[in-house]
Every structure is written in C-alpha cells, then in structure tokens.
Write a structure and sequence with these properties.
There is one protein chain. The protein is α/β, with parallel strands linked by helices. The protein has helices spanning about 40-50, 60-75, 115-125, 145-155, 170, 185-190, 200-210, 250-265, 270-285, 295-300; strands at about 1-5, 10-15, 30-35, 55-60, 75-80, 80-85, 90-95, 100-105, 130-135, 160-165, 180, 215-220, 225-230, 235-240. Strands 1, 4, 5, 6, 9, 10, 11, 12, 13 and 14 form a ten-stranded mixed beta sheet that branches. Helix 1 crosses helix 8 (about 250-265). The relative contact order is 0.14.
C-alpha cells in the first residue's frame, strides 16, 4: 500500500478565459474542478495505474467533505483526519492568453491543532515493510516547520519506503532519515544551495550533494529540459521530453512521483521507474487534468 500525506489538500478550480483583464469582468470559456494537493494527486495517478493507495491528511468543512466524497467516488481510498474548524482550501487556476499561460491563486487552508496532528501520526503507526509513504506539499498554518522530519522520525524502523516532495528546509530536514526518494524540481534544487537556474550538469552535482546528506535517490524534474535521476547505485540518467501540446503543468511533478513509484514497485529497476515517472509527468502536461493510465503508457515508448 502506498500512503500519501497531504497536510493541506485543496479543491483546484481551473478556469479558462480568452485573456485575463485585471480590474474588469472576465467570463470563462471552460471550467474544471479537480481534487488536489500534491499527495492527493499522487494517489490519484497511482490509483489509475492500478497501485493500491490511500490518501491521508486533514479536511475541514463542506469543501473538505466535497474533496473526500469526490475521491471516494473515483475509487480512491481516503483516511483523512476531520478538523472541527475551518475549511479545506480552494485554489484558483486561471489559464489565459497564450498556450500554457497560467495564473495561480492558492489559499492558506485551515489551522491544524496538535491533537489533529497526533491523530494523523497514529494512523501512520500501521506502516510496515510492504508499504510506502509519500509526504508532499506545503504545510498549513499551525504546524511546526519540522513536521516532515518528525513524521519520518516516527516511522523510522517500520521498514516502509519514504518519499518526500517538498521545498527548502522542509525537504532538507528529512535527509538524515534517508528517504528512499526525493523529487525537487530544478528551481527548488538550486534554491537549496543558493543558486538560480541550473544546467543539467549542475543539477547532477547538487543532486549528489543531497545524496551525501542522506537521500537515497534524487529525481529532479527540469520542465522542458526533461528530468534526471541520480540513484543509489551511483548511476545518473537523463531523459528528455517527448513532442506534444502543452495544456497545463498542474500536477506534472506529482504524476512523475506516482509514475516512478508504480514503475519501481512493479520492476525494482531504477531505469524502468524513471521512464514510467517521465511518461506520467509528460502525459499530465499534455492532458487537461491528471493523466490516465492509457495516456501514460502511450508515452512510454518515447523514453525507451
């Protein structure tokens, strides 16, 4: 079982307009509502790929109920902690103008009291050697900055694979617990070391530094430049991007994490896992939402 933890899930309300005009009335051409948050996205793609998964985290209010009901209707197992106050956030994604142009407005989300965090941690006490745990996304208000580190400390020794997709100190704090996989994008990787945009060679160097600090495998997404995987055997692999029409980037990195895990769990081969991750990330970029299993598998030959 792959358990995903999204501490600040969301309803992602995506609208398309001909051209966003600030301070004026804008009318949509198309609207979509997605059940989001990084870990939720990972669970969604894993489910579509036939991997057993459960989405954990916190939900609150009528928006939280809508999120939970929507995931359950899609066949995705959930085990959220229900908060007594606040609302699960609604994020607005505006697609306008030229192809691929996006504007995002992300809400803060509810505050998490200590008792709710402890309730979540108790759910994670059931993890075992046959399981994987994915920690993904930002922290909501009220949680300490070392929450991810504390979660990995709690599950250490249970034998589960751990995956972290987070930025800055939230990611760095988990490295002493030797996560199986971390997935920074190139901007996040550069930021960790006080750098700006990175070339592929520079990304490999800094991925190596994260390995030295504890990460077993480092998967770096580099947008139009593809991705690289520095695995625990020391092999460094680069994959480009296939041709296709870019529709949106929301959830592409999460799809890559899901694809990598699905590939690894079925083959135990890092090269195959990387190919599946790259195909999943690209398929989502070329889709109107998170990619389907057919869309992902159709792209796999592009990475052979």
């Amino acid at each position: 079982m792959v358990y995903t933890v999204t501490l600040n899930p969301a309803l992602d309300y995506e609208v398309c307009v001909d051209g966003l005009r600030a301070g004026e009335l804008n009318r949509t051409k198309r609207e979509n509502l997605h059940f989001g948050g990084k870990g939720v996205n990972v669970s969604t793609v894993l489910h579509r790929l036939g991997v057993e998964t459960a989405a954990l985290g916190f939900v609150a209010g009528f928006t939280g109920k809508a999120l939970e009901d929507g995931l359950s209707a899609a066949g995705i197992r959930t085990d959220f902690v229900h908060l007594e106050e606040g609302l699960t956030r609604v994020n607005v994604k505006i697609r306008s103008g030229g192809e691929g142009e996006e504007t995002e407005i992300n809400s803060q989300g509810p505050s998490i009291p200590p008792a709710a965090l402890e309730a979540l941690l108790q759910k994670l006490d059931r993890l075992g050697p046959e399981d994987a745990l994915v920690l993904a996304g930002s922290l909501p208000a009220g949680l300490p900055r070392d929450t991810y580190r504390n979660i990995l400390a709690r599950v250490e020794g249970q034998g589960a694979l751990t995956v972290v997709d987070a930025a800055k100190d939230l990611l760095r704090g988990t490295l002493p617990y030797r996560p199986f996989l971390i997935k920074p994008n190139s901007a996040e990787l550069g930021e960790l070391f006080g750098r700006g945009a990175l070339t592929g060679e520079e990304a490999a160097v800094y991925a190596g530094r994260l390995q030295q600090q504890g990460a077993r495998n480092v998967l770096v997404s580099m947008a139009g430049d593809g991705s690289l995987l520095l695995d625990e055997t020391g092999a460094c692999r680069y994959l480009g991007v296939p041709g296709g029409t870019v529709r949106h980037s929301v959830g592409a990195g999460d799809s890559m994490v899901a694809g990598f895990l699905a590939g690894w769990l079925s083959t135990r081969d890092y090269a195959a896992a990387h190919r599946m991750g790259a195909a999943a990330g690209s398929a989502t970029v070329f889709s109107d939402g998170l990619a389907s299993a057919d869309e992902i598998r159709a792209l796999l030959p592009s990475f052979s």
